[in-house]
Design a protein that fits this description.
It is built from 3 helices and 2 strands. By secondary structure, it is mainly alpha-helical. The chain has one domain. A hairpin with a 5-residue loop joins strand 1 and strand 2.
């Protein structure tokens, strides 16, 4: 299952709760069901894919920062390793 397409936004709900979802929705938490249904998606599977992406965000950020450092240093060997690490993270996100 694919995650919710971007762009995403964070909105505040009642009691300070944060909702993450499509930026095109006024209330991502409330409207996510309709959004998924209109696109023929399984909402629970989509939310699981979204959760996997969010959980991997710190690792993805680290991998991207490492790639940038390798590019700045013009270090092609380290860049190849950094890209491989990023691909492994992406593959883990896409696992069912």
């Amino acid at each position: 299952m694919m995650h919710t397409p971007g762009p995403w936004a964070i909105t505040k709900g009642a009691y300070g709760a944060l909702h993450v979802g499509p930026a095109t929705l006024a209330h991502p938490g409330k409207e996510a069901t309709q959004y998924a249904l209109e696109r023929g998606r399984d909402l629970l599977a989509q939310r699981a894919a979204d959760a996997a992406l969010i959980a991997a965000a710190p690792d993805l950020l680290d991998a991207l920062e490492n790639i940038i450092l390798c590019c700045d240093a013009n270090d092609s060997a380290s860049l190849a390793n950094a890209l491989a690490d990023a691909l492994i993270i992406v593959a883990k996100i896409k696992e069912p």
